[in-house]
Design goal:
Radius of gyration: 14 Å
Largest sheet: 7 strands, mixed
Mean pLDDT: 94
Structural class: alpha/beta
Strand content: 25-35%
Shape: globular
Distance between the termini: 5 Å
Number of helices: 3
Number of strands: 7
Helix content: 10-25%
Strand order of the largest sheet: 1-7-6-2-5-4-3
Length: 131
């Protein structure tokens, strides 16, 4: 499915609806350039699960919301081995949902089954979201 979002709020609404399809153990990859709206999308997912406080995990690698939603930022990792050494892969396929930004940096340790969300910046406010 493809959507065009005209605002951050609309991106969150699309993510809220998408969250209804997620179940425990899902690993969701968010693809998009810097500023594309990956964290905004994660905020919408969190809202569906009645979680708040979502921020970009860039400096922490991983933020956990409600011990259920695991939000990764692998931008600063150079390979899957880095993720393994940091214990980030320990949460894949558990009783939680993993949301991963910059997953291409750890592609060699990702589970075989992942869901992919592509977010493309069209202009300052608009995004193309492909689920």
């Amino acid at each position: 499915m493809e959507y065009i979002s005209k605002s951050e709020k609309q991106t969150q609404e699309i993510a809220f609806e998408y969250a209804k399809t997620l179940t425990k153990g899902d690993v969701v990859i968010l693809n998009g350039d810097l500023g594309a709206g990956k964290t905004a999308f994660t905020k919408g997912l969190a809202k569906y699960f009645n979680l708040d406080g979502v921020t970009s995990p860039t400096y922490a690698y991983l933020n956990v919301y409600g011990n259920f939603l695991y939000h990764y930022d692998c931008y600063r990792l150079s390979c899957g081995e880095d993720a393994v050494m940091l214990g980030l892969t320990d949460y894949f396929n558990g009783d939680n949902i993993c949301i991963i930004e910059w997953a291409e940096n750890i592609s060699d340790v990702l589970p075989d089954k992942v869901k992919i969300v592509n977010i493309q910046k069209i202009d300052e406010n608009s995004r193309r979201i492909i689920l």
